């Protein structure tokens, strides 16, 4: 837990910033949602086939999907979404040039009863 997925229009010149963004988001969301930093996992996916509005290729998107273990209040989820959106904009907006970009965030619950996790101890000495 938490699971983050960043999907973005592949033509945007933001690829080099996305790993830094992921780490920023881990810290921001850990603070807002009272989550353990070491538990964060982020997948980053460029989307080659995105159509927005009238199909103008200068229209683009960056979407962040946040999944948190259930039990947090709506106020916490709202604050998490707002803080994550601010981090997206702060880290990426200056890079998008003349693209018209829609930055969006959605916060979901991961059902605690249906989420399973195992973490290894790491490398073992020979």
Please provide a written account of the structure:
By secondary structure, this protein is an alpha/beta fold. 28% of the residues lie in helices and 29% in strands. It has a four-stranded mixed β-sheet, with helices on one face. Strand 1 (3-9), helix 1 (18-33) and strand 2 form a beta-alpha-beta unit. Helix 1 (18-33) runs antiparallel to helix 2 (74-92). The radius of gyration is 16 Å and the shape is globular. It starts with a strand and ends in a 16-residue tail after the last strand.
Describe the structure in brief.
Helix content is 28%, strand content 29%. With 126 residues, it is an alpha/beta fold.
The biggest sheet amounts to: 4 strands, mixed
Give the oligomeric state of the chains in this entry, treating copies of one chain as homo and distinct chains as hetero: single chain
User: What is the H/E order?
Assistant: EHEEHE
The coarse silhouette is globular
Low-confidence stretches: none
Number of strands: 4
What is this structure's SSE topology?
Layout: E1 3-9, H1 18-33, E2 41-47, E3 59-69, H2 74-92, E4 100-110
Parallel strand pairs: 1-2, 3-4
Antiparallel strand pairs: 1-3
List descriptors.
alpha/beta; about 30% strand; about 130 residues; single chain
């Amino acid at each position: 837990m938490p699971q983050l997925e960043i999907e973005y229009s592949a033509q945007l010149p933001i690829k080099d910033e996305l790993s830094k963004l992921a780490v920023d988001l881990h810290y921001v969301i850990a603070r807002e949602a009272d989550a353990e930093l070491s538990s964060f996992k982020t997948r980053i996916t460029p989307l080659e086939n995105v159509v927005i509005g009238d199909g103008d290729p200068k229209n683009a998107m960056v979407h962040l999907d946040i999944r948190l273990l259930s039990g947090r209040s709506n106020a916490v989820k709202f604050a998490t979404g707002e803080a994550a959106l601010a981090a997206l904009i702060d880290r990426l907006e200056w890079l998008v040039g003349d693209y018209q970009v829609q930055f969006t965030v959605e916060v979901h619950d991961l059902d605690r009863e249906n989420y399973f996790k195992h973490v290894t101890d790491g490398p073992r000495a020979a």
